[in-house]
Write a structure and sequence with these properties.
Layout: H1 14-27, H2 35-40, H3 44-59, H4 65-79, H5 82-95, H6 99-104, H7 116-130, H8 136-144, H9 149-172
Length: 187
């Protein structure tokens, strides 16, 4: 049970209801509100800020979605955040990350399934997740792989944001929704 009670799927609080309606308008009327959002909705202004930051990182970034999903999944592995892993595994597959890459992710240094750009991003994910920051060598490697300054900022922000997600999920003890457990076997 989370440390903060879940809001109902259709909360009475007008501000939370408006945000849930906004999410459903974007994701489809039958979208089942994730437990994460049902906790965040308890603080509507913070939930609004979360959406305003998270959705552009996920949907409007210039770097490739498969690359960012690899970064998020590796960060979730390193942090041991099952919820984040279980929710992003289907997104990664939908974005085009291969099953072989997902299965090799924990041992990415010892396989040829990842190209130089992916390796640099996975290194970034590990360093940012473990903290306190990515090394100069990793940022230099990202640039050597052809990422311009804007892409480096985008990747570092994505890695950093998902560390925040991980810490929030773990601190609030947000449980995984039914149906996602199967994804944990690949973590």
């Amino acid at each position: 049970m989370p440390r903060i009670p879940l809001l109902p799927e259709h909360p009475e609080d007008a501000a939370a209801k408006a945000l849930f309606d906004h999410v459903r308008a974007a994701r489809g009327a039958g979208f089942k509100m994730p437990y994460l959002y049902r906790v965040l909705g308890t603080a509507p202004e913070m939930f609004r800020a979360w959406l305003d930051f998270a959705w552009p990182l996920r949907l409007n970034a210039r770097t490739s979605r498969p690359l960012r999903e690899l970064l998020i999944l590796r960060g979730a592995q390193v942090a041991g955040t099952a919820y984040e892993w279980a929710h992003h595994l289907p997104m990664a597959l939908e974005a085009g990350v291969s099953d072989a890459q997902i299965d090799a992710l924990a041992h990415w240094r010892h396989t040829d399934l990842f190209d130089a750009s992916e390796r640099a991003v996975l290194q970034l994910a590990e360093e940012v997740t473990l903290g306190p920051s990515a090394s100069e060598a990793t940022v230099t490697q990202l640039k050597a792989c052809g990422f311009d300054n804007a892409a480096v900022v985008e990747l570092v922000l994505t890695a950093s944001f998902y560390v925040c997600v991980s810490r929030f999920l773990q601190t609030m003890e947000i449980e995984l929704e039914p149906g996602y457990e199967a994804h944990l076997a690949r973590m």
